[in-house]
Amino acid sequence: MDIQPVISAAIRNAVRKGIRDIRRDPNRSIRMLVELGMQFGTGAQQQRFFTGAYSLLKKQNSPYYVLVSSLIQGVDPHTLETVGINIGYNSWTEGAKTIRAYEKKQGVNVPWTLLVDVSKPLKEILDFSSLVEQGQQMGIYTYFLFIGKDTVDLDVILSVAEQHRRCAFFLLSCDDWMNHQLTDSDAPLSNMLIVPHSGKNVPPDVGNRLLQKKRIFGLNCNYNAATIDHYLSDSFLSNVVRQGYPFLFFIPTVDCDDATRERMYEKVLSLRNNGRFPLFPIELPIDIQQVDHIISNERCMLTLAADGSVCYPKGYPQVSLQQHTLEELIHLTMPRVRRHH
Fold first, then answer.
1. Could you give the CA distance from residue 185 to residue 182 in angstroms, rounded to a whole number?
2. Is the pTM of this model over 0.85?
3. How many of the other CB atoms lie within 10 Å of CB of 265?
4. Is 306 helix (H, G, I), strand (E, B) or coil?
5. Contact (CB, 8 A) for 310 and 303
6. How big is the chain by its Cα radius of gyration, in Å?
């Protein structure tokens, strides 16, 4: 008998109860969830995360109570359930088991997520539905999609994402035009996290409009040595919080040097640990690889262009989903397993 539907129903009921409890008594319920994580979390990395979170929550006025409460109160409950389960369970629990089993058998690392840049127009476009189906078979249930005004067939992409209801999709806008497309959309988007783009100034009214639609959303900005201090300034971060963004994704530009990236990640960790703002900052490439390190021991990341060619890691100009399956592409580009869990 297939017990997966029973497990899924039990998890969804537990998540719904957690949301109801947080609405009634935010501080106590959030602490209890973290205590459960400390009790059942496996592995040193998970224990460090939950121990650090519990330490922050000892402060009765911790901004993280405000952050979690605002998510619970402001986001459509079905969206919150779906995104939470698809990332926390389908991707980081069941998907991680599939990935580890594959790595043990095949000896090659499998990334826990795929990044796909569909913001630039190309002659050949990958079969996005096929990519997600192949990814699920290997345990990949989370996808980061970079989209902009030159994105071809955005409606098709949104439709495919909606059809794959057990997956989570981060829609990262690359320009103001796409910011408005995403905020104006009346599509359900229940398994998608909307991430508008910010220049030096936080886009006005975008956060408020997403709040009105009860979306789960964040903000992304591209940084380098010239702009890092601006994006880390109290004035910018305060403005992000004031306009209702719970998550802030920092993405290095192509010309960003390694020292600046390392500095950004140190600052991101400091912001998280100090808890000065009701805001969860993320340095996207490094944090993605940190999660991969927890799942697979080795770090790896795979970024594809709209035509299925490999953008990252560098050095594979002839490798593409036009000629290979996702499994073949992973064997060609990802590092070999050196250590086992």
1. 5
2. yes
3. 19
4. coil
5. yes
6. 20
